[in-house]
Backbone:
């Protein structure tokens, strides 16, 4: 057993270290200059965050001062949520990165391509006729076509004495040689000015890394901020109607406010409890069902945080069953405390209310303490002709409920997955993730819960209080 625990711990540490290295590489190394202040600061932060997270999660499970759990818990769990969505965003960025780089490379190549438009040669004023053209007769042709010394003659390719030879077209004496068209003697040649060197800019690889990294960080922070607001703003109200064949006509329209997974603890305290109570009371229910995971801690630390529950108002009172988190501390102590607050614990017990049986069973986690669910104790000897509603924290006991002829089971525990994509794991571990489903003759309704465990963040699974309205099928 110890070997398994050690191996699991090593795997967890390796995964956490690998995740932080990957984030450091993409957000720090790839976006900053080596040896610069930004890289040093980013590296220090990426070393501090996992240490802080391990410390915050560790003290939450240890016998440490409650105040220390509160101080370390917030940054530790908020970073855990951010880490999840940052990893997901960066992985998406891996697919975007080569596409963006290719687009930038093509644009750069288009800008740097040479101009190939044809350039016309300027006409030369006074250029001589082509060498093979017949020469026009001069004014002194009748004198035997003798020309003065140095004058132009009508020879096919004649040039002045001393003129440069080897030209495609004759040029004046003293003109520069080697030109495509003759120029005047001593004319200055025009040399185009070289363009100014462009200012140095970050490489395209660096630019892409900064864009992708910045977008990933922004997306992760926005997602976590949205998810935290879903928790801290309090649960919404959801309504569902469940027809029961055995429900008497007199109980038609009976309303049960179902709340689960409030999770009072170092992060969610008295103010959170008050928000939940206010939401429940606003529905004016006939009965309140608190189906487990009320707290994450001891009565000594969280007793005052739970006090707003004394303000719950319902026609037939409020009922409570334990969840697995109650057994992380002293479940018996919490059962006594909620009774003092006016709630009625159902420890493998039932009561008759408004023409139907309301039963409750302890959570499966209580089996280690000999206080697990006991369906025979809770349901034995009841009249099977009466409609029955069972309060059970975990949906997995639905098969026991079907065996005992329960008409409706009300559960929580799943949080609806709490944070996408964790919902896929929760869905695989539970028969119903959230909502209403039918199992044989038994209906199962699973609420997403009113709080959060671990990071106070909900993404894709908003907190709720559900008003379940019972409907009679009897004429």
Residues:
């Amino acid at each position: 057993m110890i070997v398994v625990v050690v191996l699991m711990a090593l795997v967890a540490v390796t995964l956490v270290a690998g995740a932080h290295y990957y984030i450091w590489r993409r957000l720090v190394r790839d976006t900053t200059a080596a040896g610069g202040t930004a890289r040093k600061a980013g590296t220090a932060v990426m070393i501090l965050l996992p240490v802080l997270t391990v410390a915050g999660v560790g003290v939450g499970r240890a016998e440490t001062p409650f105040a220390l759990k509160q101080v370390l818990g917030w940054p530790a769990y908020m970073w855990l949520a951010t880490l999840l969505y940052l990893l997901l965003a960066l992985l998406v960025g891996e697919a975007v990165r080569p596409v963006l780089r290719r687009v930038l490379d093509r644009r750069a190549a288009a800008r740097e391509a040479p101009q190939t438009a044809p350039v016309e040669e300027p006409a030369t004023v006074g250029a001589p006729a082509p060498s093979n053209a017949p020469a026009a007769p001069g004014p002194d042709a009748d004198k035997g076509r003798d020309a003065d010394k140095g004058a132009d003659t009508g020879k096919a390719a004649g040039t002045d004495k001393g003129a440069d030879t080897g030209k495609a077209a004759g040029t004046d004496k003293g003109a520069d040689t080697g030109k495509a068209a003759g120029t005047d003697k001593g004319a200055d040649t025009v040399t185009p000015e070289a363009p100014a060197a462009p200012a140095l800019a970050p490489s395209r690889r660096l630019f892409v890394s900064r864009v992708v990294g910045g977008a990933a960080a922004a997306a992760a922070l926005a997602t976590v901020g949205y998810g935290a607001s879903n928790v801290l703003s309090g649960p919404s109200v959801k309504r569902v109607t469940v027809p029961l064949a055995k429900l008497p006509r007199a109980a038609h329209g009976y309303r049960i406010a179902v709340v689960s997974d409030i999770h009072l603890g170092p992060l969610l305290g008295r103010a959170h409890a008050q928000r939940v109570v206010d939401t429940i009371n606003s529905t004016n229910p006939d009965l309140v069902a608190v189906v487990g995971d009320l707290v994450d801690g001891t009565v000594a630390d969280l007793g005052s945080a739970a006090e707003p529950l004394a303000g719950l108002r319902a026609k037939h009172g409020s009922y409570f069953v334990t969840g697995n988190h109650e057994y992380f501390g002293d479940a018996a102590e919490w059962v006594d405390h909620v009774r003092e607050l006016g709630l009625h614990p159902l420890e493998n017990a039932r009561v008759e209310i408004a023409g139907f049986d309301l039963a409750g069973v302890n959570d499966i986690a209580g089996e280690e303490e000999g206080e697990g669910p006991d369906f025979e104790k809770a349901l034995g000897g009841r009249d099977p002709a009466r409609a029955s509603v069972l309060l059970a924290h975990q949906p997995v006991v639905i098969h026991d409920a079907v065996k005992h002829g329960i008409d409706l089971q009300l559960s929580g525990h799943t949080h609806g997955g709490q944070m996408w994509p964790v919902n896929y794991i929760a869905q695989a571990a539970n028969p119903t993730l959230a909502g209403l489903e039918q199992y044989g003759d038994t209906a199962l309704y699973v609420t997403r819960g009113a709080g959060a465990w671990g990071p106070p963040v909900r993404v894709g699974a908003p907190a709720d209080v559900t008003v379940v309205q019972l409907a009679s099928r009897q004429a």
About this structure: The chain has two domains: 2-107+204-218, 234-472.
